[in-house]
Amino acid sequence: MNQNTSSFWNAHGKIPYNMTNDYMFRAVLQYNNKVLRGLVCSLLHLKESEVRSVEITNSIILGESIKDKEVRLDINVILNNNTHINLEMQVANELNWPDRSVLYMSRSFDQLNHGQKYKEIKPVIHIGFLGYTLFKECPEFYATYKLINVNNNYVYSDKMTLSVVDLSKIDLATDVDKKYHIDKWASLFKATTWEDLKMIASDNMYLNEASQTIYHMNSEYWIRKVCQDREEYYLDMQCLNDIIAEQENTIQQLRAEIESLKGR
User: Could you tell me the residue range of the domain that residue 188 belongs to?
Assistant: First the structure.
């Protein structure tokens, strides 16, 4: 057992930054390809033997300061040199996810070069990990959407797939979700203490690997610094959203009072 592994198993207390921080999410999956492979296998219900390669195509320099606070930290992955996968952690509700995810998926789908044929377009899968329920009237832990016929559900094309993992609805995980440990991955992302993390990861090789990588990334000063910057950015954004919501509520109240006065 190396020193870092030993330190992880002896760690206790609060995790400084878990994987709901979009930078920690990016850092762990970029740093450890084994973790990325395990997560992809779970999400797509694949066996290890079905995965020849999983490569990130938009790597960043880990620990380098992010000057633009609004920078996207989504991860573009190519699976088996064929399928394009986009992974993104989005805990804050910016009220634009459906349009945003469709736009990102469409950009990935627009991949043909001059002279290529349409049949050469590779499948695209966009998977978002959200910290809130996207459609409150239809809550679901792991939801998947395709282009289908609205009358008979016949699939128009299987080359575009949108999926959403609702980290706030792990209790709604189905038997299939549990079979592929997707609920465990969600719990690992949200774990706030090292004790919880070790308990979640105790009986799964990939989750164990992810947990130790989270520990390693938290031990790096520059990784923690960027994670802190990201948290401060989202906190500022949330404060701004609260102010806007309060102002909109005030405007609605004033409009109601004006209408009431008109009726007198």
Answer: 3-262
